[in-house]
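re: ur question from yesterday

yeah so i grabbed the chain u mentioned. its 102 aa long if i counted rite. heres the sequnce exactly as i have it in my notes:
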Amino acid sequence: MTTPITRNTAMRLASEAFVPYGCKVRSHEADDSFSLTVHDLQGQVVLSIENIQSTQYANPLRLAGVIGQARADLQRQGRNLDPWAMPFIPDPEVLPEAPPVY
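ran it thru and got these structure tokens back, copy pasting raw so excuse formatting
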């Protein structure tokens, strides 16, 4: 089991995943989703994902898949991206308990 990611955290992670290109994210309050648009260095839109639902971003593995697919699409277009990996997000349910300090 993984720790659910909040929309704000997912938006931050997505915005950092497309360097050196710019990525704008927009929150959609009505359905707890967000969208992202990636711009090239001249400001032209090179990728747009209109709706990333909470079922896609709350699970870190699913969010990594969404971002990974988007990055792969850009790379197939011949666009070079800086390396990126989904950060480790610990699950508090499986963290070992600290022994008591006496």
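noticed a couple things. The longest strand covers residues 45-52. also Confidence is low (pLDDT under 50) at residues 92-98.
anyway ttyl
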